[in-house]
Design goal:
The chain is mostly helical. The protein contains twelve helices and no strands.
């Protein structure tokens, strides 16, 4: 990401509690974080970084990225898949693979952000990377090949996300990965600064920590899966999906994620 220098973690009480949870302060060495620990870490970090999440709700790049996901799913329903994609600046050849498709999606987001007054932000890059991960991680299981195949194979994979159930699955993966990246934007400062602590003995413990955080956020994002599918299906049928109603739903979904993580913490 690189638009903002990470710097030091704030020294407020909330952030001191986050640091204690991440590092395993007071524990014996070699103690990996449990599922309950990850619940507390995610909830407390999101609480401490609440202003940052408010910025995500207002970020034009985050809005556009999620809007584009809806348009990719709808394009797969079109009689002319390539033409529907071309309206968003995405161009595929007959032999384009899932990898090619994802690269085109990333380029389309980049072009949009270059034309927007605010340009790219750390938050927009988190959303962009999360969208790419959501597409490749889910669609690859349907195409069977990330680098081979054809445009028709990609279309068939994306068509599975054009239903109520399918878009709910895509939305869950996007929001899970976005929240994980958002949290790690802050937590990476903690993990980098506290190597040698009980839970972060050396560099090898950091990828394990990041994997556990991503898995926890993926699972927590189940709270928005049905909401994503229902909103997508109902909105497309009743009025059509546009940037304005997409932005409203995005704010709702991120608030649902925040509330879910807080509730998990309260139930411990």
């Amino acid at each position: 990401m690189g638009h903002t220098r990470l710097g030091e973690i704030p020294k407020s009480r909330k952030w001191r509690e986050v640091v204690a949870l991440v590092t395993g302060e007071g524990l014996a060495g070699g103690v990996a974080p449990t599922a309950a620990d990850m619940t507390g870490i995610a909830a407390k970090t999101l609480d401490a970084a609440r202003k940052g999440l408010d910025k995500a709700v207002a970020d034009a790049g985050v809005h556009y990225t999620f809007y584009l996901l809806t348009q990719l799913a709808l394009a797969a329903r079109s009689p002319d898949w390539e033409a529907a994609l071309d309206r968003h600046g995405i161009r595929l050849a007959n032999d384009s693979s899932l990898f090619d498709f994802t690269a085109e999606v990333q380029d389309a987001i980049d072009r949009h952000l270059r034309q927007h007054p605010s340009g790219a932000t750390d938050l927009s890059e988190m959303a962009q990377q999360s969208a790419g991960e959501a597409i490749t991680s889910l669609a690859a299981t349907r195409t069977g090949n990330l680098f081979g195949g054809s445009s028709d194979d990609v279309r068939n994979a994306m068509h599975s996300f054009s239903t109520k159930k399918g878009f709910g699955e895509l939305g869950q993966r996007f929001f899970g990965r976005f929240v994980a990246r958002f949290l790690n934007f802050y937590l990476s400062r903690v993990t980098a600064a506290h190597l040698g602590s009980p839970r972060l003995r050396d560099l090898g413990d950091i990828p394990q920590f990041n994997d556990a955080l991503r898995s926890h956020c993926d699972q927590s994002a189940r709270i928005v899966r049905d909401f994503c599918g229902t909103w997508y299906s109902k909105t497309n049928y009743e009025q059509g999906i546009n940037p304005e109603n997409t932005s409203r739903f995005l704010a709702f979904a991120l608030e649902k994620m925040r509330s879910e993580l807080a509730q998990q913490r309260a139930e411990q």
